[in-house]
Design a protein that fits this description.
Length: 147
């Protein structure tokens, strides 16, 4: 007589292998960072001291300043809610990398020398969100669960 045993099942998804707290921490980090970054985008329009500390904004339609501010603000809102979050994060990572290499890098080699540390850090953080996703509490996650 032959007996058959059911094979052991293992979790194959990355979410099943991670600690449940991880999704919450990723979501909280995404929300706080995108909220703070939204203020950075609003500065291009003259809010919160503007780009010069005196309330000045970049001229309407100018490239890259005005368009960069539009992308920063729109991307921050999308990332805040976790909607199209991977694409928004990848776009924001590119925007910050562009800002670093065109504005800051010509002034010096290192981010501490050229005042580009925030641009560099934001670029890498957004690249991280593009890679790992929005976390547990996001519109993207809700849509994915309903499918």
């Amino acid at each position: 007589m032959t007996t058959t045993t059911a094979p052991k099942t293992t979790a194959t998804t990355a979410q099943a292998r991670t600690n449940p707290v991880t999704g919450v921490v990723v979501s909280a980090s995404r929300i706080v960072i995108s909220f703070l970054f939204g203020f950075h985008g609003l500065q291009g329009f003259g809010f919160f001291g503007g780009i010069d500390g005196q309330g000045g904004g970049v001229p309407f339609g100018s490239f890259p300043g005005w368009w960069g501010s539009v992308l920063e603000l729109a991307g921050a809102v999308l990332l805040l809610f976790g909607l199209a979050s991977r694409a928004a994060a990848l776009l924001l990572s590119g925007v910050m990398a562009y800002a670093y290499f065109t504005v800051h890098a010509p002034m010096g080699l290192l981010p501490l020398q050229n005042m580009g540390e925030p641009a560099a850090v934001y670029s890498w953080i957004f690249l991280l969100f593009a890679a790992i996703g929005p976390g547990r509490y996001a519109v993207d996650t809700l849509i994915k669960r309903r499918r």
